[in-house]
Amino acid sequence: MTKVVCDFLFQHVVLRNDAIAAPAGTAAAGQGPIIEVEAKLGQIIDMDRGDRLQLPVLTETIINKEGTRFRTAFESSMSLAQHRAMNNFLNEAVKSSMPHAAPGRIPLSYAHKKERDTFYEVTPSELPPVIRQNLNPRHKPKVRVTVDQRTGEVLAKIVKCRIADLDIYSPSTTVDWRVSVNLEINYDGDVSHLPVVDASRGRGGERNKDRMSYRHLAYQIDLTQVAKSEPPTKGDFEHELEIEVSAAEIRRQGQLAMAGDPKNQYEDLIKGFVDNVRVLARAVPK
Description:
By secondary structure, this protein is of the alpha+beta class. It has helices at 2-14, 80-96, 129-132, 247-258, 266-283, and strands at residues 20-21, 34-46, 51-52, 61-62, 72-75, 109-121, 142-148, 154-169, 176-186, 206-216, 219-227, 237-245. It has an 8-stranded antiparallel β-barrel with strand order 2-9-8-7-6-10-11-12, surrounded by 4 helices. The longest helix is centred in the last third of the chain and has 18 residues, at 266-283. The mean pLDDT is 91.
């Protein structure tokens, strides 16, 4: 498992020379396209059956989406009860990492953010070539404008596209997971002339995010509750958990490995990423 994820990230992060590899949790800010590496918890859905994929295997396995008879989709959501359980799990992890509880251990840092996203349609011609080349032709590109709910400050204007992903089926846990490599670039244009994305056609319009971020070493875990309407009503919330690993550290350690440096920690870095995902997946209740 780790070897396949290592090779996947080596191809899509270490060997790329058209984007900056940024630390975890870094937003694009005018320095050109940046690479983001994240894993999301959710479920792989069998599109023909309409529910979670069922395979005759007992252990984690990476789905080969090339030439397979399965039509699958990945849904990165969890229930409110699962969200609360993971919030408690992560808060306990923060407490147990504090110096008085674990002398000599590097503590987890914690941040709580409340933000509002608004999505605008943008034409591909307004975007740089590196983004245009990687856009999914079935999806229209969007600018995501993020505002601090408390202050009204514009935090970011981002265009994001997915480069590649791996879907990992996990029969022994309640959730599966997906590893994605994304490109993000800061949008410098004026959004006032852009139409707001029609929310009735999927994710779009506006959403309010209540996000708790936990950071440790090269990894960041984001637990997010998203309100899809204002004011939100019961059933108008989505809950997501994602784990990000520093693309900058992936590229640095990968380049050391490529140069033959025996002290490189590339495989250890990716193994830590995979193990973090596994620990969290096991903690999600039914």
